[in-house]
Amino acid sequence: MTSLEEQQNARFAALDPLLPPIAAPPAVSEPLLVTAGGRKAGGLLAHHVHAPGSWPALWGPSEIWDLTAVPGDSGAAGLAALLDAWRERLRGTRPSPDSGCTLAWPSRDTEAAAVLLAHGFAPSTCLAVRPPDPPADPGPSRVTVRLAGQADVEALTDLRLAEWRYTSLVGTAVPRPGARALLRAEVVRSLRFSGLVWLAEDDGVPAGLAACALAAPAPGDSIHGRLRPGRWGYVDTLSVAPAARGGGVGRALMAVAHEELLRPGSLGTFLFYHPANPLSPVFWHRQGYRPLWTMWIRRPAWS
Q: Which UniProt keywords apply (predicted)?
């Protein structure tokens, strides 16, 4: 471990006790080194291009430049210097409008947030966590909740499509051709492999879904270096039909899901939500979740 990584681990531990140590960098990356106020700061740059019609292209720009920043103990000045050097590195690349620069950073680091905002970044997604506390009483609800099966694929796809369309207005989803087919394939995959998909019904009419899974951070996945090692419950998608919102459907679904996900040995549950969504932050905070990481984006990418 380098001195920069040791310094950053110490800073992260002081910021938030739930932050894990720095993880190994991506296999293909480009180093970025700067000095700020006599202190060193470093980072690694990665470039990703998502093919048309692919799953990742539904949830963000088709071309992404990502920075893993390691400013060590140089603080906000080091992060600002890294962003300036990154912008200079990308000068002349001529990225398309369907592009972006991204960076993930601990949500509690408000000094870093000020630097990112000043450089034209906006918070796009939060990774939020919930401790392994017992599920809360959902209160009265008209709906019944049951495990979904193959016979429910079309109803689940409709609910996921409605959620994705809403997210395209207030989150990172991007309108793309073939979205329904991709979402349907994901529904089938979730039913087959996780088995943790619940359907809420109001007098037999589909009113909402919760698609979940059990996960453990591993190299190469989206939570490696974001969560402490161990077993976590993952809330992939909660979707409530527009006509059923405000009637306790989401609470009823999550009471059932949390009971299954928070088995003994679980470190807690996690999910991703969009800060600009006027509904989900309030709901998830009431469910006991709080932000751990914020994913920032600058669109389009620097040129």
A: Acyltransferase, Transferase
- Identify which has the larger pLDDT, 136 or 292: 292
User: Are 149 and 108 members of one domain?
Assistant: no
Confidence class for position 140, pLDDT limits 50, 70, 90 = confident
Q: Are the C-beta atoms of residues 19 and 226 closer than 8 Å to each other?
A: no
Strand partners, 213: 234
Tens-digit pLDDT profile for residues 109-122: 999 999 999 999 99
Beta bridge partners of 68: 44
182 & 106 share domain: no
| Domain encompassing residue 94 | 3-125
Written as six digits, the tokens of 9 are 């681990």
Say how far residue 74 (Cα) sits from the centre of its chain: 27
Q: Kindly report which listed range (15-29, 37-51, 244-258) carries the lowest average pLDDT score.
A: 15-29
**Rg of the chain, C-alpha, whole Å:** 20
Q: How many CA atoms lie within 13 A of 286 on its CB side?
A: 12
In a domain, 17, yes or no: yes
CATH of the domain at 269: 3.40.630.30
Question: pTM for this one?
Answer: 0.95
**E-strand spans in the chain?**
30-36, 39-49, 63-70, 99-106, 122-130, 144-147, 196-202, 205-215, 232-240, 269-273, 290-298
Is residue 296 in some structural domain? no
204 in the same domain as 98:
no
Mean pLDDT score, 150-175: 97
Same domain, 184 and 277: yes
- Percent of the chain surpassing pLDDT 90: 88
What is the domain count for the chain?
Answer: 2
On whether both 108 and 150 belong to a single domain, the answer is no
Task: Report residue 296 as tokens.
Answer: 């920032």
